[in-house]
Specification:
The chain is an alpha/beta fold. It has helices spanning 14-29, 53-72, 83-87, 89-95, 111-119, 165-169, 177-189, 207-210, 215-225, 243-251, 268-274, 280-293, 312-325, 352-376; strands at residues 5-10, 33-34, 43-48, 77-82, 101-103, 125-127, 147-151, 153-154, 173-174, 194-198, 230-233, 255-260, 298-305, 329-334, 381-390, 395-399, 411-414, 424-432, 437-441. It folds into three domains: 5-133, Rossmann fold; 147-376, pyruvate-formate lyase- activating enzyme (Alpha-Beta Horseshoe); 381-441, Nucleic acid-binding proteins (OB fold (Dihydrolipoamide Acetyltransferase, E2P), Beta Barrel), CATH 2.40.50.140. The protein contains 14 helices and 19 strands. The strands form four sheets. Strands 2-1-3-4-5-6 form a six-stranded parallel sheet, with helices on both faces. Strands 7-10-11-12-13-14 form a six-stranded parallel sheet. Strands 15-16-17-19-18 form a five-stranded mixed barrel. Strand 3 (43-48), helix 2 (53-72) and strand 4 form a beta-alpha-beta unit.
Length: 443
């Protein structure tokens, strides 16, 4: 039995976390002991992100911090996996000698081989199989508690002009419905209360396997085969908000009335340059249909400001739409110029100063909307999933169905009786903050 200790650092999105959990399972099956801190590990695996410049910087800084442990502590091996390993494989091997092994996104099945090699003294091991061979699903060690992510597809075929994901992860490859439903049953057996369904474009699920968008059929299968009370849909693109998907959100009581629809912009000239599918009319129609069919639905979106060629008029149109649409949740990014994407060489690149100014204006606009919507929730009672207890503040921390994990706010609540982690309780909201709420359980 191998008694070596290994730690994992998972950066980036929830899809990356699912990959990390698969690798954790492979390492435990190989006899490795998983430890939470790099300081006590023999080897560390960093699952990196390389989506935008900020993510790349975080990945590089994390690798360098861990390299310090190799030089000054007991860490013996440093392995880099994920998107940065796939995208910059040659550069990392050539310019960062601190790295002992590289594992690309198509080679997760070889993580044990990579770690064994690095701990055996080999330097420069590289598992770089074609990204199209990236494993779909697989047994994993779930690192979250009462909620879990369920990745239903790999890659993306949308080819947005700013996005490097297709070149890193390859085209869309959906998992079979039977495979996903089986994993959902396993998660149900673990006591998972919330299932967050994810992919690069979740709404595109099934088009490659079945010739049509099959997300509604998949979710209905999951609800039939499990008892998980909350099922949440993330990353549903507006051009694929089909009537069947709207009906699913309306009629399936276990699908929470919350949907994430990343629109990126509303100006038609900008959407065209972005190579987004559909136009402003389509986006507005998707928002209208969802709100008409599902009263009270919470809509989240993501926007990019400062895309090449974005004019003051384009940005003003975006701000007007944000005010009109009143998205419940909104995240924004300044455009990140990524090599190997069509937008990299576009003319009329926007200066960093203007990008930041536009970002600040947009987020101030959304803050006012958020404050208004949060105040409207005061006095109402919501089912709330308890995630933890803060002994210092003497409050429980949780989320209602209208807050997604990691990206939305929290509910801080008190209770006259002990509440267990993973328990869903009714909480009356007594106060609101910018993005969080305060409440108390209803007896």
């Amino acid at each position: 039995m191998n008694s070596k200790k290994i730690a994992f650092v998972s950066l980036g999105c929830a899809k990356n976390l699912c990959d990390t959990e698969v690798m954790l399972k492979k390492m435990t099956d190989a006899g490795y002991d998983i430890v939470p801190e790099a300081e006590s590990a023999d080897a560390v695996v960093v699952n990196t992100c390389a989506f935008i410049e900020e993510a790349k910087r975080e990945s590089i800084d994390t690798v360098l911090d861990l390299a310090w442990l190799k030089e000054h502590h007991s860490l013996k091996a440093l392995i880099v996996t994920g998107c940065m390993a796939e995208r910059y494989r040659e550069e990392l091997l050539a310019e960062m000698p601190e790295i002992d092994a590289i594992v690309g996104v198509g080679s997760l099945d070889r993580i044990v081989e990579a770690v064994d090699s690095a701990l055996g003294g080999e330097h420069g091991f590289a598992a770089l199989d074609p990204k199209e061979t990236c494993a779909l699903g697989g047994d994993r060690v779930v690192t979250t508690d009462s909620m879990a992510y369920l990745k239903i597809a790999e890659g993306c075929s949308n080819r947005c002009a700013y996005c490097a994901i297709p070149s890193i992860r390859g085209p869309l490859r959906s998992r079979p419905i039977e495979d996903i439903a089986a994993e959902a049953r396993d998660l149900d057996g673990m006591g998972i209360k919330e299932l967050n369904v994810i992919a690069q474009d979740t709404s595109a699920y099934g088009i490659d396997l079945y010739g049509r968008y099959e997300l509604p059929r998949l979710i209905n299968e999951i609800t039939e085969k499990t008892r998980i009370p909350w099922i949440r849909l993330l990353y549903c693109y507006p051009d694929k908000i089909t009537d069947e998907l709207v009906e699913l959100l309306r009629s399936n009581d276990r699908v929470v009335k919350y949907v994430d629809i990343p629109i990126q912009h509303i100006s038609d000239p900008v959407l065209c340059r972005m190579n987004r599918h559909g136009d402003s009319a389509m986006i507005k129609d998707a928002v209208r249909r969802l709100r008409e069919a599902v009263p009270g639905i919470v809509l989240r979106t993501t926007l990019i400001v400062g895309f090449p060629g974005e004019t003051d008029a384009d940005f003003e149109e975006l701000c007007r739409f944000v005010k009109e649409a009143e998205f419940d949740r909104l995240g924004a990014f300044t455009y990140s110029r990524e090599e190997d994407t069509p937008a990299y060489s576009m003319e009329d690149q926007v200066s960093e100063e203007i990008k930041q100014k536009r970002y600040d204006v947009l987020m101030k606009t959304q803050l006012r909307i958020s404050e208004k919507k949060m105040k409207e929730r005061v006095g109402r009672v919501y089912p709330t999933l308890c995630e933890s207890f803060d002994p210092v503040a003497e409050t429980y921390v949780g989320r209602t169905p209208y807050e997604a994990p990691d990206v939305d706010g929290k509910v801080f609540f008190t209770s006259s009786r002990p509440v267990s982690e993973g328990e869903i309780v009714d909480v009356k909201i007594t106060d609101s903050m910018d993005y969080d709420m305060v409440g108390e359980t209803v007896v």
